[in-house]
Task: structure prediction
Amino acid sequence: MVLRTLRSQSTESSRGHIRVLGAADGADLDGLFGQNRDAFCVIQERVERGVLGSVSGGGQLWGWYTRAGLESAIHVGANVAPIKTTRAARRAFADQLGRMGRHSSAIVGDKAEVLELWDLLAGQWGPARDVCHDQPLLRMVGAPRVAADSLVRRATVDQLGILFPASVAMFEEEVGVSPIADGREDAYRARVLAAIRAGRVYARVRHGKVLFKAEVGAVSAHSCQIQGVWVDPSLRGTGMAAPGMAAVVEAAVREHAPSVSLYANRHNAPALRTYARVGFEQVGTFATILF
Result:
């Protein structure tokens, strides 16, 4: 387990020390999140589900403590995600992660923090399959600026058969690999089904075919994050995406959390134009290292 590995090694330096965060550290961690809740939505959801101090599959949170208290943190699980890391903290975290070896499929978060972590870890964790250097983090400001598509509805379990291929296609386009390769089809199907059952998948369906879909991928008390946006290739450029996104935004605010965010690759100009039409504005920049 990650927890045992961390505890079995010295994590102290003259500048500070690393330790696994537990339930008693919740207030300190909340202070790190500050007002930028959208950037840490995925991590906040896991904290609210009890990841602090846990040795479950949800990963761990490590804190970097100095005399001033908790200065930085990092989530270590399926993904590695830095949280307000200082340079000293990044070096300490990278040293620990390098000694443990790579068990994560991505590093994702604030661009400057992620890219420096990768510089420090590349020798032990490389090579990366892809480096996404520039991913605008967007937050919805106010009500949607376009009319919502009234035919976008919350998906139902009986639609799994048509939503699953659309989810696979979206993943392959976005990530560049298949989520069902190497015997992972059952696991990915279970993930899609769980999202549908949680009421987080929205779609426009016609004659048994998915035309548009999107998911609310993470939900915390303060914010939620949209992911998995996909339009049938034959309908791209027809104006379906913006009304569809407006419908998902309205549903997300009504059913999940008051603030809605997402992030996308800078080179995906059509998607960024669509999000701007709906009313999203850039509030930060992410980077992602994929393995």
